[in-house]
Every structure is written in C-alpha cells, then in structure tokens.
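Continued from yesterday's entry.
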Amino acid sequence: MTGRPASRGAATEPPGKAAALDRLIHERLRLGIVSALAVNDALTFVELKALLKTTDGNLSVHARRLEEAGYIACTKRFEGRLPRTHYRLTASGRRALERYLDHMEAIIRATRVR
C-alpha cells in the first residue's frame, strides 16, 4: 500500500455543500471489483476476470489502483505449482463503497423529487 489517501466521502462534507464523488470507485471496472468483493469473502484474479468479463491487463491495472488506495488487499501464493492471486475488500474499502452508494442514492432521490 502506498501513502495515497483514500477519497473523502459524503459523510465528511459540510452540510449544504455537494459531496465529492469518489472518482476512484466511480470507474466502471473498479466499482465492479469492490462490489464483487463486498459480497464475497475473497475472489481470485481468474474469478474476478471471468465475473467482470475483462482482460488480464485491465483487471491488473484497476485492481492495483484499488490496492494502492487501501480499498482491497491482494495476496499471492502457489497452489501446487500454479500461482494464485486472491483479492479481498478491506474495511476501508467497505466504508468507501458504503459512502459511494449513499452518495449515489442521494443523487437518485434528489433527481426523483424534481
């Protein structure tokens, strides 16, 4: 993990000011990764790749961004002679996802009221 700070969420914004959207999670593939890990204890690289229907390179780049932010944790080990990479959502990642979902729900509610 790098020293990169996690994005601020809606809960930290002052009242009356529009909260900043967590751009790190907002990207389609990264949202897919954290959402998949939110409902699974852990997933392998191969499982995530199949679930999200993406390429090795694309998944690697986006997973690394989430890992650098501390939203997901990655462990690598060998099972027999085959390397396996496992990902899981961190507590920080779960909080970031919850803030993101709260933010999106607020946008939807505000849009429907008008």
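--- second protein ---
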Amino acid sequence: MPVTDVTTDTENLTLTITAEFAAPVDRVWQVYADPRQLERVWGPPEYPATFVEHDFTPGGRATYYMTSPEGEKFGGWWEFTAVDATSSFSFRDGFADADLIPDDSSPVAENRYTFSAIDGGTRAVYSSSFGSADDLQKVLDMGVIEGASSAIDQIDALVAA
C-alpha cells in the first residue's frame, strides 16, 4: 500500500496524503504527464477515468470523466498553475457535469503534488487546500480519502509494469 499517511487539518482547511512508490521519481512523474497512464490510476478502480484533454503546462487544462459500474459519468477539470518537471505541479481541481462543463456549486481545491527521491523510490505528497470548512467537509463526505487512496494505491502496479 503506497499511502503512508493521511492528514486532515480542519483549522487550515487542508487534506494531505503522503505515499511512497518503489520506482524512481521520473517514472512516477510520467504517470501524471501522460494522460493514457494517468487514466489507469485516476479515481477508484471501479470508476475508470478517461482524460479528454490534458495540457500539462502552466495555464493548461485537463478535463476528464470517471465512469461508474452502472455507466454513469462524473466529470472533473484541472487548471494547471505551475509545472516543475519531475518535482512538483500545482493545479485548481473542480467538478464538472457529464459534458465536462464546470459545476460552480461544487468545491474547488488548490492542489500541489510534490515528488522527491527516497531510498528505493519516490515519496509523493498530495496537498489540497479548500476555500471553506464546508467545501472540505463536502469532499470528505463524498469519500475523497478512500477514493484518492484507492487511486494512489494503483500506481505501484502501473510503474512496475
């Protein structure tokens, strides 16, 4: 299980997940840089993702949808604010409808993912900040910790292949 720690800070409105992978930083970075690889690990295994666009540059956007076992589609979008190849990237992360139109009534998180070398692999820190306690609570109620952890846990198998 790559996830080693999950911290929810309700005072500072943050959620931080730390994971360690048995692969070099460059290999883990490739997962996020390549939408075909990313869709193999984004979201829980029973909700596979399809990335429609993925412009992995500052100012670029990504849009995707996850498909439930019943065929229902759940959309999302990212807006990249910084990309420092192989060490970190930051992005705004929101929900969208099945047509990938942003849902302005749902929380938007400010995310920063960082990657560093450790003995035998990579440590990734996934940090999310929310604009309000209600927004943080909404995503916690949606099961973001369980969903993100099960998604992250898929990365080891992908990078080992």
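The chain has a mean pLDDT of 95. Residues 35 and 142 are 24 Å apart (CA to CA). Will compare against the first tomorrow.
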